[in-house]
Amino acid sequence: MRKLTSIVSYPERGEGGNNRYRGNCSPKLIEDLIGFFKPQEICDYMCGSGTTRDAAQKCGIKSHIYDLHSGFDLLNSEIRERPQFIFWHPPYWDIIKYSDVMYKASEVESKYGYDPRKFDLSRIQDWDKFVEVMNYAMMKQFAALEKGGRMAVLMGDIKKKGKLYSMLSEIIKPGTAENILIKAQYNCFSDNTQYSGSFIPILHEYVLIVRKDNPLMIPIITTKKLELDIRDMHGATWRDIVAAVLEDEGRSVPLSVLYEKIEPYKKARQNQWWKEKVRQTLQLYPEHFESTQRGMWQLKRAVA
Ligand SMILES: C[S@@+](CC[C@H](N)C(=O)[O-])C[C@H]1O[C@@H](n2cnc3c(N)ncnc32)[C@H](O)[C@@H]1O
């Protein structure tokens, strides 16, 4: 019996599910979760190739598995169980598409009467929309749990055009956060991709484990996206603000421009001597600010 630790690694995938179903996971992870938490049953509402069913069978427990490809849409279908343990392995945003790639949408439509492409999380193009839908699916599953029940959510990070899209960071976290496991990733889709020097290949995924301790009151951790002006921001010093204005201007400017760009903001409104502060700051940091002629200032470029 393997011991479950905060880092899990399964170089040999193991038997169960289908390793040709893209984005499938190792049954060993699910076996280890079952072995550790000892649920009597396990549910998986995005079961893909059925890895959870096979892992449960091996561990001698019952499973309830569903997927969009076989008549169950987590966004609109009813969850019939009150699960004790849910294993959830959502799509990695749009990196691997499922409907009409792993299975034919037309076949699902003729069999179950809906076009799966409309509800497939992997077909949501916009990241923020994906996060919104993922979070709805998270809360729907969490709401169905019995008291003491758990969800283990297997997720990855996605990097596109130099930007990180982290499912773990942005997923809503209801209940008691119990563990975050790091799972080493093998044979992943991106292994054959040649990256430029500035890309750190992602070789791990995460398993977030949350527990429902209270049936009525659910603590929630959620992310909020904001854009703040540095001139209104707590923690920004006069040096940061003067440097930011000069950096934004990208040229030598008269003091009047600095005043004009700073006056309307909190930093200036909270200090009646703000003009003096601007002038003092320019003098205090000769390593950052230089005067090109009387009353004209620019940011000193860092030496390359
Ligand atoms: C990463 S795969 C799961 C792989 C699975 N753990 C395995 O080992 O084969 C994600 C699955 O989510 C399913 N899916 C996407 N949107 C869904 C929805 N709205 N309702 C139910 N399943 C959905 C896809 O069809 C796909 O099979």
Structure description:
This protein has helices spanning 27-37, 51-59, 105-112, 127-144, 167-170, 238-249, 255-262, 266-269, 274-284, and strands at residues 7-8, 41-44, 62-65, 85-88, 150-160, 163-166, 173-174, 176-184, 204-211, 220-221, 253-254, 289-293, 296-299. With 304 residues, the chain is of the alpha/beta class. The chain has 2 domains: 7-221, 3-Layer(aba) Sandwich (Rossmann fold); 230-299, Arc Repressor Mutant, subunit A (Orthogonal Bundle). The strands form 4 sheets. Strands 1, 4, 5, 6, 8 and 9 form a 6-stranded mixed β-sheet that branches. Strands 11-13-12 form a 3-stranded antiparallel β-sheet. A hairpin with a 2-residue loop joins β12 (289-293) and β13.
The helix content is 25-40%
Q: Give the overall pLDDT as a whole number.
A: 95
Order of helices and strands: EHEHEEHHEEHEEEEHEHHHEE
Question: Can you count the helices?
Answer: 9
CA-based gyration radius: 26 Å
CATH topology of the largest domain: Rossmann fold
Shape descriptor reads elongated
- Biggest sheet, in brief? 6 strands, mixed
Instruction: Quickly name the level 1 CATH class of the largest domain.
Output: Alpha Beta
Proper CATH architecture of the largest domain? 3-Layer(aba) Sandwich
How far is the N terminus from the C terminus? 55 Å
Question: In percent, how much strand structure appears in the residues?
Answer: 15-25%
Provide the domain count. 2
The beta-strand count equals 13
